[in-house]
Each structure stands twice: as structure tokens, then as C-alpha cells.
Amino acid sequence: MDKKIIAIVIVAILIVAAAATAIILMGNGSQEKTVKATGNLPVYGNANNDDAIDKKDVDLMEKLIKDSSIDRSAYPFLDANQDGKLDSADVEIVKKVINKQKCDLYYVNFEDKVTKQSFPVKADRICVNRYFFAEAVDILGLFDKIVLAPKKLTEDRSHMYDMSHIETAYEGGKAPTTELILENKVDLIIADSWDGSVCEPAMEADPKISTFYVDIYSYGNLVKFIEIIGLFVGANERAAAYANFVNGINDYIDEGMKGLTKKKIAITYLGSTITAGNTTMECAPCSSTYLVSKLADAYYSDDKSSRNNRYTVEDEWMLKNYKIEYDAIVAMHEYTDTTKVNGTYYTPAMFNDRCDQLDQKYSAISIKNDGNLHSASFFSITFGSYAHIPMIAHMLFPEKFSEEKGWDYLQEYWSNFSSAKIDVRTQGGWFDTRA
Amino acid sequence: MNGGTSITKQAVDEWLHGEYPELEEDLEEYHRFNHLKYIFIVACVIVAILTAGYALSIGEYNISFLQTYELLWQHLTGSVPEDMSIQDYVVWTLRSPRVLGGLFAGAALSVGGVMMQGLLKNPLADTYTTGISSGASLGATLAICAGFTVIAGQYSLVINAFLFSLIPMAVILSVSKLKSASVTTIIMAGIAVMYLFNAVTSLLKIWAESAALSAVFEWSVGDLTGLKWEEVAVMGMVVIPGLIILYLMSEKLNAMTMGDEQARSLGINVETFRLVSLLTTSLVTAAVVCFTGLIGFIGLVCPHIVRMFIGSDNRLLLPASAAFGAAFLLICDVIGRVIIAPSTLQVGIITSFIGGPVFLYLIIKQRRTGW
Amino acid sequence: MTTIDINGLYFSYDPSHPILSGIDLHFKDSGMICIVGPNGVGKSTLVRCLNGLLKPTSGTISVNGNDIGEMTPREIADIMGFVPATTTIAFPMSVADSVMIALDRKDKWHTSKEDLAKVYLSLDVMRMRDLALRSCNELSAGQTQKVALCRGLVRNSEILILDEPTANLDIKHQIFVSDFMHELSMASGCTIIMISHDLNIAARYADQIVVMSKPGVIYDVGRPEDVITEKMIREVYDVDAEVMMKDGRPYVFLNSALNW
Where are the domains of chain C? Predict the structure, then answer.
């Protein structure tokens, strides 16, 4: 009996160790189809890989079917029905999409997995699992279709939106329960990647529900989400407008960066208080690093501790490595932008106070006087993230990018893509406006 | 003097012939004494059933009490009407496993507590004393924060939690083979592993991103939400036989609480018994914890409450604790679902909230010094 | 017929400090055996080797021809009962339940009437039946000891080992318990092995007395009148005493300690 127990224990531990080794060596494992989407609408049937499924795709597919010698490598999304070949069946599907008829489509999700989704998606009763998903719904012009949302939206953002159409608000800032989703007869859920255990049972119970999983924290490509969801809910024009807006910003940046070298920066994150002694940096794959990638290279650490997005160092390290590992700091402050204070918006003056505090943190080095200490709101947690980039550009390259344009782009986002009416120059805490 | 006095002769005579005048009366009294205990057990079972019945009918999805049972009946007879498929799903797939799982979990954790307290002769022991909680936490944290799981797929988190929760037990077993399966060895080995595991878990949590961190925290609180039938079936397959085995050992457990010497002189192989019952208890607990997360206080407080009514005879204490634990956990779950409706408070929070004050009350009110 | 054979028994935790140094004892249907000797001489160790609680460093112990070392705890418990000197109870239960623990029940599922009757009978014999439903931790030291004795009785073992069973009892109980055990061994044929500090009790009730002396050896074995002598008391206990006979049994009158 004694020897047996020891043997069993040893064998069990060996199995665990072996499996662990195998998994580590294998890496992330099962991915059936790894597709690099070059466009922002990675839906099979989007033959020409642009931002819409339209007649151009039908023409291209027919051309390719006729002449099989043409090189297809530039067109990864030909196989609309995922049967392994390109034929008239695929063309049929594209035609159905154009005519808004029912069919099954396949798209590549943010985890690079091919996902099946029926088309079109009804979006009359929407559930948003995080308050910032409401912005996505707003961009698509469907804000008043939200019926189920967290109190982080309905209570904490009551100064921004008219939310009388939201029928049920639930506690906390995460997902609701499955029963709540079913009780509210939701037909579309915008969910976080962690919410599968709540959404899957809901869809199993009521097959009419559709879910789109959005990851706002990594990789920064929010346009993709908007375009995909826009396609399915029939808000193509709004999605296209958003895409154009973002492309416009990218062009503006590209133009201004001609002949300039990217700066080396550290992107830091600050929560509700400015902590003493430590600095938390955001490293790839945080969205923020990708958003600024045309302007600057954000500090990246190979250290295992930065495997997840944030990397905390002692302030001493920051002081020591100024002008060595980074030349400028772009500090992101959370709980400023549209945060409710005393029933109304956070103010620019309050933001400036925060900036004053931040100055203290690095007062031992010359970073502030060199004009290399910049502050902005936590811009990666919003679908308006791109609209902040022109101002970041102005901060880093003031000679090439104007402050006016910085404000204009941000204002354009809130004016054209949101049902909340904000004057960004006077409402909210966005950027350091100290002279 | 080779004969005894007449008094002792009479006593020995009485002893060897097996009766004395008041015997019947005494037996009667003993049975009466025990009757109350049986009534307690039956009462707990009834409360558990009633609570389960109520729990099935409440939830954010509005279904009336009668309709709930109508649907249940329809599901079992395969005659659910077309337009009620969502309600059927809610009652059968969302709520029923949760209720049944709650019963299993409550019974398992409560009996686990009784066993641990008896084995370690320590009123503060509970199912987590062998390091199951730190093991399961580590397994879950590894899965959530580092994506490191022994087996990939849908149940990777659960399997991780299960396997890792048993590692401390394995260490205790091995150490016991080398040293001795005394109470001290077990407790010390368990604590050593617990500290190590907690350290690794903390490390993972420090490096984790916020979404992962909150997922870990949520897991650790203990929740019956989202239990599926497959999971409850697995739980049942381990818990039911496990509890039966532990019940069969309950008599010997009585002897164990009297000390190793007394137990051994009654024919019990003390070390084997201790290890086998620890292993069984750990498996039963692990099978619950890996699905529900850490639900605290059941294993610690329920046995003591039941002792106030039943006393410490483990043959009655075990079934009573199972019934009471099942009822208690389910009541806490119902409270959690009702108190801030339509949102749900996890059952682990409720048990801790209730457990603390109840424990204090017990300590103060106990007239008979049970410990 | 019960035979006990101990051959060349050595026991030590540490080789340089032996506790038992070569014990040879042989008993056949010996009725009540009392083991006496000064503190620390190894009496408790001896009986614990006898019933398998301790493993001898060398030597064999056989009961009815079967080697104790080869038997499982269960098999040993079937023939030998043991009443330890002290009992600790972590979670007190009722007196009746605590005696029931010692029962060898055929039926695991419930307590049969016969089993319960046996428990109550033992309590009655020890005059504890009024306290049957009392919690164990409400008993006095003497009462606790009597309950332990009940546990010993209830198994009807062939050999019953009692480790200082009268230590906490008043004189009436001391006499009664010792007498009862002796009478029981006569009437049922079982062997009682009792460790006692009281030479007079041992002298009065034992059929055989084993005197142990340092360093863990047998000084003498035999009938009380042969073994309890002034010489023995001087050499083994280092005490000056007078021994007188009454009704064929020796009585010890203590005078003084000799060396300190």
C-alpha cells in the first residue's frame, strides 16, 4: 500500500510536468486557420479585401473563377462558404449579402480564429457588457437600441447620454447573468473576450441571439470591430464613415511624419491616484503602443514580467534611464476624460492639477523642463482612441503638428460619432493645457 | 483469600449474564436521546429539499413557481411546448444543475470539515487545511493569468484546479511515508506547501493584467453560477461514493478522536486510516472546489453548528452535517440571488458574511465546552 | 487456555539507552497478573510491546503460539483489550457513545439491542449508568477512568491489559475494580495484566506478580507471597519496609526511603 501511493504520486507529478513541458514547447497550440487580414473587414466574401462587401467583390470573384491562372495570394477572403474552393456558391453568398438576405458568413475574430455568424444580425435590443462598448454601438448609430447595460454606464455616465431607453441596469462593470440577458429578450450582445461563459449559454437557450466579442486592451485595431459588426447589423455607412475618419487621421500623421524620425517614449499608466515610488508602463501588446506606433516606439521589455501588458518599475529606474531607454514620457491618466465629478464633466483644470502632481514624480530629472513629460487621458479604453493621436503628435512634434488640429480631431469624434454632446476644449480632462 | 467478596461476585455474575433490572428503562432513555438527533437530520433534509424547490423557481428570468415545476415535468416527460424552449433552458440547463450542485457542494464541504476536525483533532480544521484551497487557487490562477493548463480545451481551468488542489495532499502523503502520519506531520507539511503555493499565486497575480486579475478573484470567491450538468454529474460521481466511504469510516473516526493508542488498541491501523480518509476527503473537496471555486466557512462552521445538536458521535454527525451543509449552502445561494436582485452576490461571499458572526455566536453561547 | 510467551525482548528508542533489556516471561492461564516496579523501569513499554503498540527492537512475543509481530492490529485487538492510563478526547461525546466505540459490532449500519445492552451493562457494573448520557468532558478524573475500564470490558477480550487503572480512584473503587478484575479472570478464564503502583493491591488480588527493575529487566516473577519481600522492596524500590502476612497474602508497611 505504501509503495503504491508513492508510485501513484510520482507518476501523477511526472504527467503534470510532462504535459506542462509539452504545452510550453508547443506554444499557444490549436489554431486551425491562421490568417493575416490585411484589411479591416476580414470577412470571407470580401474578395478584394477592402472595407465593404459589394459588387466589386462579385466582379473580382467571377474574374478569378474564369481564369484560374491569376495569382490569388493577395485575396485571402475568397472562400465565402469555407468549403475549400472558390466557385459560384461563394458568389451567391456575396450576392445575398449585398441584397441583405439571410445566409451564414465567416469572419476572422480578434484571436485570428475563423468564426461563423449568421447574416444579417438583428440589433433591436442590444446588451453591452462594458460601458465603453456603448461607444461602439453609438458609432454604428444604434445607441438607442441598448436595453441592458451595466450601471457603470447608466449611472456613472448619466451626464453624457440620454439613457431612458435602457430597460435594465445591472450592478458592477462586467457582464450580466445569462438569465438577465434572456429575460430582457436581447438579440445582440457586445461582449468582452472573458464573457463566454455568460454569452454562450444565452445563445444556446435562444438561438436568435448573436454575440460579438471585442478586446479593447490589445493590438489597438478597433476599426476592425466596427467594420465587422457594422456589416452584420447593416450599419455599413456608419462603419465606413468611422473607417474613413480613422484613415484620415492615419494619413494626417503619415504626412506630418515625412522626414521625421520616430521618438523613443515610455507610455505610463496612472490610475485614480498618482502612486509614489513606482511607475507602471504599458508595453506591447497594449493598444496604446500600437496607437502611437507611427509617432514613436514605446518602451518594450523582454522581461517575463511584461508578458502581460503592463510593466511596473521603480521610479529610480525611470530617473536613471531618461534619455537612455526613453526620451519622453506620455502619461495616460485614467478616470479623467468624461468621468463624472459633482454630477458633471471632469474639467480641464482638474486635469492640469493632475499634471502638476505628475511633475513632482519626476522632478529629479530635467524631463519636465525639456518639454518631454506629456499627459493625456487614458485614450486606449475608448473607441475614440485614434482621435487623440493628432494631439499626441503635437506633443511630440510641436513644429509639425498643430494643437488646433489635435483638438479638432478629438471634437470631430465626439460630434460625429457619438450621441453625447461634448465640447472637448471645455468639458472633460483630455490633455495637459497648462501654458 | 482466593474468592472475591460477595459484592464483586455478584457484579461479575451480572456482567457475565448480561442483564440488570433497569436495563430496559435505560435503553429506552438512550433511544429517546437519539430520537432528537434523528429528527434534526430529517429536519435538515426537509429544509434542503424545500430550499432547492424554492431556488429552482427564482432568477432574473421571470418564471412563476408553478410554471417552473410544470416545465420541469414537461422536460422530464419530453413534452416541452415549442414556445417555451427558452424557459425550459433556463429551468433545466441554467438553474437545475446549480441547485443540485449546491446540494452536493454543501454536503461535501461540510462532511469534509467534520473529517478534518476529527482526524486532526482540531476544531479549527476544515477542508482547506490540507492545502486544497491554495492548490486549487494556484491551478486556477495559472490557467487564467498564464494560460498554463495541463489539458487544453473547455475544461482546462477545471482540470487545472482539480489536479493542482491534490498536489499538497500528495506531498503530505509522501512526507507521511518518510516520517510518520502523525497529526503534527500532516499539519506542518500542509502549511509548508500552502505557503509555497500562495507565494507562486501572488507572483502570478502581481504580473497579471487587470482583466485576468479580476477573473482570478472572481474564481476564488466561490460561485454556483454557470454550473453545467456535465460538471454536476462529475461532482456527483466523486462526491456520492466519497461520502458513503467516509460514512463507513465514521465509526473508526470516533476511536481516532480518542488518541492513536486507544484507536490502535481497538484494531485500527491508525496511519493507514488517517491517510485514506484524508485522501478521500481531499478528492471529494477537490471535486467540488474545482467547479465552484473556494466557498469558505461551510467546512469550518457547519460541523460545529451540527455538533451543538447532535454531539460528536461521528456516525450521526456525518450524515447530519451533510444534510445541514447542503441546506446551508443552498440557503446562502438563494440569499445571494435575492438580496441585490437582479444582480447576484456569489455564494462564497454570503457564506463568509454569515459564517463569521455565526462562529462568534457559537463561541459565546456554547455552554457545554465542546472544545 | 491462554498462553503468553515473551522471549528475549529488547526495546529502545536509542541504542545507548535501552528501556527493556532482555525480558523473558511465560504465562499459561495465569488469571490476574500484576506488573510492578519503580517509575521509568519500562512497565508501560512492556505491555505496549505485548499488544503491538510498540515494535520491539529484538525478541519475540507470542500469544497462543502466534507471533504478535506477524499479526495485524485487527487480529491483535480481537484477542487483547487495552485500557490506557490516560484518555484524551478531542470532541466529547456521551459516555454511552464513548464506550460504544470499543465495541466490535457486526452490523455497521445500526447499533443492535445486544450491543447497546452490553454498553449499559458495563456502565452499570461500574456504577456509571446514571451518567450514561452525560458528556465525557463533564466527568471527574475517576469517572473518566471508570469509563475507560468499561471500554476495556465491553470487548470480552481473552487478554485485558490495564495500565494503572486505579490511579485516580478512591479506596473503595480501587478495591472494587481490582477485586472485580480478579474475579472476572477466575469466572471467565480471561487473563488480566494490570500495571499497578500499589503493592498491596497487587499483593492482595494478583495470581502472579512480575517485578521489574532497572535497567528494564525482570527482577522476579511468581506468586505474591513469594515475590513481595522486604529484600525485593529494598533492592528494587530503594525503600525500607516491613512485610507481614494476612490470610496467606503479604502486606507491605512502608518505613522510609533509603537513598535520594
Answer: 3-84+158-257
Question: Is the domain of A149 the same as that of A68?
Answer: no
The DSSP string of B167-211 is HHHHHHHHHHHHS---HHHHHHHHHHHHHHHHHHHHHHHHHS-HH
Answer yes or no: is pLDDT of C187 > 60: yes
CB interface of B with C, residues 258-277, below 8 Å = 258-259, 261-262, 264-269
- The answer to whether residues A252 and A362 belong to one domain is yes
pLDDT score, position B318: 94
CB contact under 8 A, A177 and B173: no
Nearest CB to B212: which of A19, A178, A308? Answer: A308
Which is nearest to A53 in space by CA: A2, A111, A107?
Answer: A107
Query: Is the confidence at residue B1, as pLDDT, over 60?
Result: no
Pick the residue from chain C with its C-alpha nearest to B254: C101
Predicted confidence (pLDDT) per residue in C206-246, tens digit: 999 999 998 888 999 999 999 999 999 999 988 899 999 98
Work out whether strand A310-314 and strand A373-377 pair parallel, antiparallel, or are unpaired. Answer: unpaired
Write the residue in B86, B225, B343 that is nearest to A172 by C-beta: B343
Inter-chain residue contact A217 with B209, CB threshold 8 Å: yes
Q: C73 and B19: CB-CB below 8 Å?
A: no
Return d(Cα A33, Cα A107) in angstroms, integer: 11
Say if the Cβ atoms of A197 and B226 lie within 8 Å: yes
Contact C30, C208 (CB under 8 A): yes
Nearest to A157 by CA among A133, A186, A178, A187: A133
ipTM at complex level = 0.85
pTM of the model: 0.82
Q: Where are the alpha helices (DSSP H) in A207-314?
A: 222-233, 236-257, 287-291
Please tell me which residue of chain B has the smallest CA distance to C73. B267
The per-residue pLDDT for range B178-203, each reduced to its tens digit, is 777 778 888 888 888 889 999 999 98
CATH superfamily of C3-84+158-257: P-loop containing nucleotide triphosphate hydrolases (3.40.50.300)
DSSP string spanning A332-391? EESS-BT-EETTEE--HHHHHHHHHHHHHHTTTSTTTTTT-EEEEE-GGGSTTGGGGHHH
Per-residue cell: C178: 481490582
* Placement of cell 477480550 in the chain: C157
